[in-house]
């Protein structure tokens, strides 16, 4: 929080800081800076001083081809193997063809990619008619060759069996039992599941399910540093901790798209530097994690477009079901000692809501906000009584949390919670562990009494609920030793219930079963995330992904319809 | 002198062996975490972790892993450095344990010039910003110039360089809408575009050099004050020599011996400092590489980089030792 607070104050009070700092502390650097940038037209982004990044807006606003976009990114791209590596998925979306897109706002498949038509005769059969004309880039084992159903099958097989793939709940259903993949013809691809899985359709649109030509997979078992795709943009340069450059694939199926000549992704792991690069015009799309105040600052500057949406990331406290945490009264006391409103007000800039087992932005599936707020009152007196009832004057524990680079919001929340519960008698020692060691030594072996970390931004109820399943979120194990056979039944049932109203009821019932348990996961509040870009960047009908596309809008695969006025 | 240098150079492989062994042992025994688990992520079962560990050879006995790694470095090979192949050690530092599996040597080839340029510019700035104020401060003690130099040095010593780096970037944006070019296009080598290259390095080098310059300034001042009280300096004054001759030719050379020592020692601190400054200024040098490698438990990359850092440190201090003889001909090397 120290850094984010500092930056908030800095941007708000820049004039007074300027005066203060101008007095001397960085005089030498400042003078040298003036000397250097004075000869550079006074900045990177707005050399003609028109406040518009040095470009003339298009009068019509219609897409014009050409131009390059630079976007910031805070996390290194360790690899771009779409089936295995999770850090390069945004690049994979540019380079590969996918089955279709998923509109999470309408919860519908958008047939804008490889699948031309689909037939779902029952809950376990998915028959896809594939579109012709997706050809491989001009180099590599599948150069100029048309993508077909055998490529889709090879890709699904590989993704499904990938050793380190993040989730096995869906592929387990077509790899085992009666489940199978079939390619009855070159452009017909059928999937049979051995039992229903409601999120299956959504899963297949996930960026880890890229269709890679089978010949490429045969020749390159490891695609971490190579890409030979059929997608709209060709991977030109990959330096995972520096920059990734992709350029237009001239033979793309939906030519003349993509409109852009190239997209340059610049990786800067320091959040404040990333924001500075955007504001100075070196980046056209902001890669920094924005707080409300930094977003407001950008909004007040007419040069930028800023959007926001509720964040699906949510911080949680995991409790290991042993010692004092086996007593529900102790868990409840901890829950009552947490002042969630204070977290929203002080850390989430007043923008946030309570989360139940499913995050509040998933409006269809989450418990009503009123119910959650009533269930999680801040009641330190009752918490003290409960502790006493359970036979404890105080509880001492260690809460392990990962040391995350970039924004400090999660560390700040952990520290605030530590202070809040102290008043009730929970003496929590906060142990920040380097991320690698946290995964290796804390989470995976379940080596914690309490653990604090942000859950991934799942936009579907199955995965958040699976944290409470005996088999855990990955289907391979549970870190907290929590088992509740009745709850397992509900979680399994919702994964196979296609009647939405019924499923909704099961999901709500499951959450209402979880709440009084006050564990093994205590969910905290969720805030808002922001997107910012320069005004001359046009994102196309799909938009920025945070806000819903216009109703009825037709759009192509990611990045194909982005264009820029800056040529 | 020649024998001394030869002896020191012969010691280099022994030091390197010790450094590499200690790094290897520390990472496997002392530092928690495992590259296989980090690559697997949250969803991994112990069986999968074991399979990845096997794939990467991490399940072999430590001495086998260390031996293979060492052999790849020292094994004889020929290098195409000219018209005739030149024999020498293979110097293959292995492949990264991350999924990229990039050869460490390739990464170092690309990143070492960045860090070396940063270090060279930093040392140059440190000397330029440290020695002249130190001299002025010593020959004009208790004057406003002396006070300014002394207070300034305390300030520079107290301010953390990464914080200063963030301020410099903030200054650039707020005042000039400017950030260093590497924020938008990555590293540009000096010979490709000297002007852009200078813009990339001047601020990180300045930021990194200020604390060292402050230390040099204070040491130069105290050392020069002491030398100026010597009899031979009094003799020089009494001969009627000009102040510049007395200070520069007679006093400063002797006063610089402890300063040279400090510069040598500071090379180590500079390497450490470069890790942070490279991150703040987005210079993709060796410092940033090793930081990322440590976070991902990429032992092979860390071992390779530590070896290079140790080599740099040892050679820099050899240069410092040799410089003593030039500064003071009375110094003899046994």
Q: How many distinct helices of chain B?
A: 13
Given as residue ranges, the uncertain stretches of chain A (5+ residues, pLDDT < 50) are: 1-60
The separation of the N and C termini of chain B measures 8 Å
The SSE order of chain B reads: HHHHEEHHHHHHHHH
Give the low-pLDDT segments of chain B.
Answer: none
Distance between the termini of chain A: 39 Å
- Biggest sheet of chain B, in brief? 2 strands, antiparallel
Q: What is the chains' assembly state? A: heterodimer
Average pLDDT for all residues of chain B:
85
The secondary-structure class of chain B comes to: mainly alpha
- The proportion of residues in beta strands of chain B is under 5%
Query: How is the largest sheet of chain A built, in terms of strand order?
Result: 15-14-16-12-17
Q: Which class best fits the helix and strand makeup of chain A?
A: alpha+beta
Q: Judging from the principal axes of the Cα atoms, what is the shape of chain B?
A: globular
Strand order of the largest sheet of chain B: 1-2
The helix content of chain A, as a percent range, equals: 25-40%
Shape of chain A: globular
Instruction: Summarize the amount of helix of chain B as a percent range.
Output: over 70%
Largest sheet of chain A: 5 strands, mixed
């Amino acid at each position: 929080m120290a850094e984010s607070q500092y930056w908030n104050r800095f941007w708000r009070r820049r004039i007074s800081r300027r005066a203060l700092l101008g007095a001397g502390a960085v005089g030498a650097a400042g003078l040298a800076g003036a000397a250097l940038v004075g000869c550079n037209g006074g900045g990177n982004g707005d050399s003609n001083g028109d406040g518009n990044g040095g470009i003339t807006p298009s009068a019509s606003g219609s897409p014009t081809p050409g131009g390059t976009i630079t976007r910031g990114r805070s996390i290194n791209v360790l690899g771009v193997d779409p089936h295995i590596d999770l850090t390069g998925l945004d690049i994979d979306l540019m380079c590969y063809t996918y089955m279709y897109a998923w509109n999470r706002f309408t919860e519908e498949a958008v047939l804008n990619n490889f699948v031309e038509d689909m037939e779902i005769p029952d809950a376990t059969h998915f028959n896809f008619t594939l579109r012709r004309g997706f050809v491989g880039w001009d180099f590599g084992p599948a150069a100029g060759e048309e993508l077909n159903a055998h490529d889709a099958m090879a890709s699904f097989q590989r993704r499904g069996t990938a050793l380190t793939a993040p989730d096995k709940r869906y592929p387990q259903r077509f790899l085992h039992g009666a489940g199978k993949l079939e390619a009855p013809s070159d452009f017909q691809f059928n999937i049979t599941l051995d039992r229903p899985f409601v999120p299956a359709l959504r899963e297949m649109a996930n960026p880890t399910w890229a269709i890679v030509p089978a010949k490429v997979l045969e020749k390159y078992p490891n695609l971490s540093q190579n890409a030979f795709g059929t997608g709209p943009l060709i991977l030109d340069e990959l330096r995972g901790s520096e920059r990734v450059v992709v350029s237009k694939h001239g033979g793309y199926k939906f030519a003349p798209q993509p409109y852009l000549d190239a997209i340059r992704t610049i990786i800067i792991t320091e959040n404040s530097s990333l924001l500075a690069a955007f504001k100075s015009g070196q980046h056209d799309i902001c890669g920094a994690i924005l707080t409300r105040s930094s977003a407001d600052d950008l909004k007040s500057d007419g040069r930028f477009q800023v959007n926001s949406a509720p964040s699906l990331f949510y911080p949680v406290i995991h409790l290991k079901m042993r010692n004092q945490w086996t007593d529900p009264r102790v868990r409840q006391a901890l829950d009552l000692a947490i002042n969630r409103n204070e977290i929203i007000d002080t850390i989430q800039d007043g923008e946030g809501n309570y989360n139940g087992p499913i995050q509040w932005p998933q409006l269809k599936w989450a418990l009503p906000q009123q119910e959650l707020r009533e269930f999680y009152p801040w009641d330190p007196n009752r918490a003290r009584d409960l502790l006493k009832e359970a036979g404890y004057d105080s509880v001492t524990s260690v809460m392990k949390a990962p040391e995350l680079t970039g924004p400090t919001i999660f560390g700040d929340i952990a520290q605030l919670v530590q202070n809040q519960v102290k008043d009730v008698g929970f003496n929590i020692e906060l142990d920040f562990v380097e991320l690698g060691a946290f995964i290796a030594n804390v989470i995976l072996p379940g080596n914690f009494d309490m653990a604090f970390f942000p859950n991934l931004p799942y936009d579907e109820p199955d995965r958040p609920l699976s944290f409470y399943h005996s088999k855990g979120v990955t289907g391979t194990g549970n870190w907290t030793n929590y088992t509740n056979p009745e709850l397992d039944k509900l979680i399994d049932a919702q994964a196979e219930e296609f009647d939405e109203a019924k499923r909704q009821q099961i999901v709500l019932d499951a959450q209402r079963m979880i709440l009084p348990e006050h564990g093994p996961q205590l969910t905290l509040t969720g805030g808002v995330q922001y997107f910012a870009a320069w005004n001359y960047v046009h994102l196309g009908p799909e938009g920025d992904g945070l806000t819903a596309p216009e109703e009825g809008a037709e759009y192509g695969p990611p990045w194909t319809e982005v264009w820029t006025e800056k040529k | 002198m020649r024998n001394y240098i030869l002896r020191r150079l012969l010691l280099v492989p022994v030091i390197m062996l010790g450094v590499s062994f200690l790094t290897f042992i520390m990472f496997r025994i002392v530092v928690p975490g495992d590259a296989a688990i980090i690559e697997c992520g949250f969803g991994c079962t112990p069986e999968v972790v074991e399979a990845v560990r096997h794939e990467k050879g991490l399940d072999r006995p430590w001495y086998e892993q260390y031996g293979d790694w060492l052999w790849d470095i020292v094994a004889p090979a020929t290098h195409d450095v000219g018209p005739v192949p030149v024999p020498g050690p293979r110097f293959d530092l292995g492949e990264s344990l991350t999924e990229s599996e990039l050869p460490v040597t390739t990464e170092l080839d690309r990143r070492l010039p960045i860090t070396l340029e940063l270090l060279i510019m930093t040392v140059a700035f440190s000397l330029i910003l440290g020695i002249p104020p130190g001299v002025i401060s010593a020959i004009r003690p208790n004057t406003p110039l002396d006070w300014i130099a002394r207070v300034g040095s305390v300030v520079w010593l107290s301010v953390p360089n990464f914080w200063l780096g963030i301020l410099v970037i903030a200054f650039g944006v707020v005042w000039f809408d400017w950030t260093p070019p590497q924020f938008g296009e990555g590293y540009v080598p000096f010979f490709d575009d000297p002007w852009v290259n200078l813009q990339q390095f001047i601020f990180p080098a300045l930021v990194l050099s200020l604390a060292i310059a402050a230390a040099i300034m204070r040491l130069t001042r105290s050392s020069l004050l002491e030398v100026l009280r010597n009899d031979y300096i009094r003799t020089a004054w009494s001969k009627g020599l000009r102040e510049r001759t007395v200070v520069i030719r007679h006093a400063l050379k002797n006063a610089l011996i402890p300063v040279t020592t400090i510069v040598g020692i500071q090379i180590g601190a500079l390497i450490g400092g470069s890790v942070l400054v490279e991150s703040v200024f987005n210079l993709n040098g060796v410092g940033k590489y090793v930081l990322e490698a440590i976070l991902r438990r990429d032992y092979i990359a860390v071992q390779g980089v530590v070896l290079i850092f140790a080599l740099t440190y040892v050679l820099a201090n050899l240069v410092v030792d040799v410089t003593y003889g030039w500064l003071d001909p009375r110094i003899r090397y046994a």
